[in-house]
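Late entry, written up from scratch paper. The run itself happened at the end of the previous shift, but nothing got recorded in the book at the time, so transcribing now.
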Amino acid sequence: MLDIDHDLTARDLAPALARFWELSGTKIRRIEGEYDHAKGTPVFTVRGKYTTRGWTEWTQGFEYGSAALQFDATDDPWFLEFARRNTVGKMAPHVSHFGVHDHGFNNVSTYGNLLRLLAEGRFEGSDWEAEFYRLALKLSGAAQARRWTARAGGGGFIYSFNGPHSLFVDTVRSCRALTVSHLLGHRYLDEGDREISLLGRLVEHCRSTALFSIYYGEGRDSYDTEPGRTTHEAVFNTNDGQFRCPNAQQGFSGFTTWTRGLAWAMVGFPEQLEFLRAVPDAELEPLGGRGDIEALFLRAARATCDFYIANTPTDGVPYWDTGAPDLHKLGDAYLDRASDPFNAHEPVDSSAAAIGAQGLLRLGRYLGTDTPDGKRYFQAGLTTLRTLLSEPYLSTDEAHHGLILHSIYHRPNGWDHIPEGSAIPNGESSMWGDYHARELALYAGRLGDGGDYRFYGGCSR
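Output as recorded:
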């Protein structure tokens, strides 16, 4: 169980954050100088060097978005120009990509960060540059909204690249694209000029995720015994919209909890709760009303964060799946000690920690850090961040492209590099893990300075 440091503050982490950003900048420049982009988008490292892995192009926005975050944290203009140049030159296909659910990952990380920085006055840009970013974000949200499956009883979900039967828990975090498109006042028109509510699709997707991707210990199936467990994929019958079963693509099974999927929900729901505070009651009334919507989102956020705290080692870094088949070989007390990325049985996933820690911080602040529950979640997030800012998780070898070590991509498919002499993958990084570690560090740094960071900053009608 996560051993929460209740006295740690964001300001206490300032020296470690400064070191983090120094290493981060070096690694972004090294990837740019050494990686062959003709091979495709960098996805994860093998022997310390970024490589690609064809599945979908869901990580390119993290590469250039990382540069935008680096500029945000350091004011180094090289990273700003790198992010601007590559966003304009390479990200347009992602705006119109109708084949994926990952619009929030690719486009909010690039166009969204640049628009936010421009709105904050962090750099000078023309009105047309701002309009260019706004248009990209509007269209990205509409492209995401188009991937819609209606479910029985009303509502529906943004379906994954697996097809219209497939609801991924990941997508609740990628619904950032719907959020910013709605905030920018975009009108999504479908067949016969029928207008589709972007806010409606956002709320209904999150509602479907909360109801079918997250368990609440209410006996939905024989394994529904502990609140907060998540399933990577919820499968529906597309003929009648009925839920059929849980499933997993990257987890061990549909009845165990893949911790990166858990982490996506941990951060996705608190972020959307923050956003809902900016939405007028009148806009939420046709969708079920503020009270019911916020109660459901909060229930999902609390359940997943509680599960993470209870099922993660003391330092805040989880193993890749809480039901992984060889965890028992680590001994009954493996959750009562720090995570061990070099063990002989099951890998940890530092990217889940980088994602989930931000969710813990945001849920804590949403509830109020002056309340017992709010302080507990917030301090759990800081405790996890402190672990990631030090070895063996922080990559201090400048020759290694990765920033946060011991990330896992796809354990069932065997995609992760296993170093010589090891029985499990370790020592490598991922583009999503590094990006979310930077986003987490940026958020904590701003909090330490009395500020804030929200992904939809700068998005207004």
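Residues 11-448 form a domain with the Glycosyltransferase fold (CATH 1.50.10.10).
(Scratch paper discarded after transcription.)
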